[in-house]
Amino acid sequence: MSAHKRILGKSDLAINGAAPAYKQPLHVGRPNIGPEDVFFARARDIMSSRWLTNNGSMVRELESRLAEYLGVKHCVAMCNGTIALEIAIRATGMTGEVIVPSYTFVATAHALHWQGITPVFADIDPDTHNLDPSSVRNAITSRTSGIIGVHLWGRPAPVDDLQAIADEHNLSLIFDAAHAFGCSYKGTMIGSFGQAEVLSFHATKFYNTFEGGAIVTNSDGLAETARLMRNFGFAGYDNVIHPGTNGKMVEICAAMGLTNLEVVDSVVRKNRDNHQAYAEGFASIPGLRILPFDGSERNNYQYVVLEIARESHLSRDDIIKCLHAENILARKYFWPGCHLMEPYRTLNPTAGQALRNTEDVASRVIVLPTGTMISIEDINTIVSIIRTIAEP
Ligand SMILES: *Cc1c(COP(=O)(O)O)cnc(C)c1O
C-alpha cells in the first residue's frame, strides 16, 4: 500500500520516507539457474580431472547437447557472444560495410567496428521491432558485404526476406540470435538460418553459462573455420594454420550450461506464465501493451516489453522513475539506439534521418522483470503501481 501513496504524491517520490515496495531490488535479467547440487557435482569432476579448458569433455558434451536441442549440425562454444559474433563475421568473410539494425544491443555493431568494418544501420518495423527489409534494401551500397539480422526479444527477424535480399545481392547473412535460444521461426528452431547464427549465454540471457556464447551452423566448412579461429588457428600441436584469437569456453562454464539445459523447459513455462500475467494486467490500461509473442512458435518469453502508445499521455521516463523508487529496476532497452552511441554518433551524425522507427520505438519501450525469481504476486504489484500512474 505504501507503493500507491508514494506514487500518488509523485512530486516527493524519493523523499517522502515511505518504504519502497521492495527492500531488495527486482532486477531485469536475474539469472535462471539449474539445481546447485548438480552443478557442484560437475564442478568436482572438473577439479578431479584437472582439465579446466581447451576443448574439454564438458565443452564437447555441451556442444553436442546444444546442437541436438537446436536441431543444427554444428555448435562451436565460445567464451561469450561478442567474440562469437566477431569470429562469425570473419569466418563469413564480411568486409567494408555490413547492414545491421540500430535497435539492438551495442555489441552487434561493435563486433563489426572492432574489426574495421562499418556497421550501416537499417530501420525497424515498429510493429515487430525487427529489421524492415525495405530499409535493408535501401542501405545496400557497392561496399556492402553482408547483413546481420537480430532476432530481437527472441522474436524472429524476417528471415526469408533477408535471405532473399542476401541471395539477390550476393551478400553474407548471419543472425545475432543472442535473445532467441529456444525460439522458432515457421516451426524450425532458431539456429539453422543464414550461414550461421550466434548465441549468447551471458548471465542475463534466457539460458546462461555464467558468460558464454556459440556459433551454430549447418556448414561444415564454417564450423571448422570457427573452431580454428577460436583457438589461435591451432590444428593440433605446434601446427598453426590460420589466424585466430582466444574464444574458448572454459569447462566450468560448460558445466553450468549442461546443468541449466536440464531446466530450460521449466524456465520457459515460468516465463510464459509471467508474460501472460503481465499481458492480462496491462490489457485494461489504455495506451499500454505488452509486445506479444506468436503462440504458434516456440518462444522463451524472456523479454517482457512494455510499449507505451505513441499518442499516450504517459511518459516512459516517469514510469521508470516511479518503478525505480519502488526498487523495481525496470529498464529502457536499446535506448537511444546504436547510431546515437559512440563511435557511431560521431562517425555518422545524420544516420537518424533514416531511422525514424528506431528512434520512435526506442523512446517508448520499458523492459520489465521476469524469470524464475519473479512471482505472479510481484507482477500484480508492478501492474498496479503502473495503473496508479496511468490514471489521470
Ligand atoms: C547480449 C547480447 C550480445 C552479446 O553477448 P555477450 O555474451 O554478452 O558478449 C550480442 N547481441 C545481442 C543482441 C545481445 O543481447
UniProtKB/TrEMBL annotation:
CDD domains: AHBA_syn (cd00616). The modification N6-(pyridoxal phosphate)lysine is found at K205. One of its GO terms (biological process) is polysaccharide biosynthetic process. GO terms for molecular function: pyridoxal phosphate binding; transaminase activity. InterPro entries: DegT/StrS_aminotransferase, PyrdxlP-dep_Trfase, PyrdxlP-dep_Trfase_major, PyrdxlP-dep_Trfase_small. It comes from the Bacteria. The active site is at K205. Keywords: Aminotransferase, Pyridoxal phosphate, Transferase. Belongs to the DegT/DnrJ/EryC1 family. This is Aminotransferase class I/II-fold pyridoxal phosphate-dependent enzyme.
